[in-house]
Write a structure and sequence with these properties.
The chain has four helices and five strands, in the order H-E-E-H-E-H-E-E-H. The chain is α+β, with helices and mostly antiparallel strands and 132 residues long. The protein starts with a helix and ends in an 11-residue tail after the last helix. The structure holds zinc ion. Zinc ion (ZN) binds next to helix 2 and helix 3.
Length: 132
């Protein structure tokens, strides 16, 4: 099991590698799987703005590439002041690989933090069960 502080440090380290020359909004994320593995990532922007990739989505991709499928918790960190929650697309992607009570911990670099559940951020979500 990875501690929340360890996940935060990995998210902060990933954030420093963010490629965000257009928005200058650097984001780091680190998720923990149900097997205790941690995957961190940063946002990657593109001059064609629609191709920008979020840190949370990139962390999910790293998890999948490693053969993992279930997010136990995720940390997201931004410079602040003030925390930011994952965008709608990332909330939907997290829903695909977690449970409705997934803890989403958001931090800024000044020490502000808040924890939401996925259901709080994505109520009445559409998901795999809707396709059965
Ligand atoms: Zn996103």
């Amino acid at each position: 099991m990875t501690t929340l502080q360890a996940l935060l440090e990995k998210a902060k380290a990933a954030r420093l590698n963010a490629y965000a020359p257009y928005s200058h909004f650097l984001v780091g994320a680190c998720l923990e799987t149900n097997t205790g593995k941690a995957f961190s990532a940063c946002n990657v922007e593109n001059a064609s703005y629609g191709l920008c990739l979020c840190a949370e989505s990139n962390a999910i991709s790293a998890m999948i590439a490693a053969g993992e499928k279930y997010v136990k918790q995720i940390v997201v960190v931004v410079a602040g002041p003030g925390v930011s929650t994952p965008c709608g697309a990332c909330r939907q992607r997290l829903h695909e690989f977690s449970s409705p009570d997934l803890p989403i911990h958001v931090f800024d670099l000044q020490g502000a933090s808040k924890t939401y559940t996925l259901t709080e951020l994505l109520p009445n979500a559409f998901g795999p069960d809707d396709l059965i």
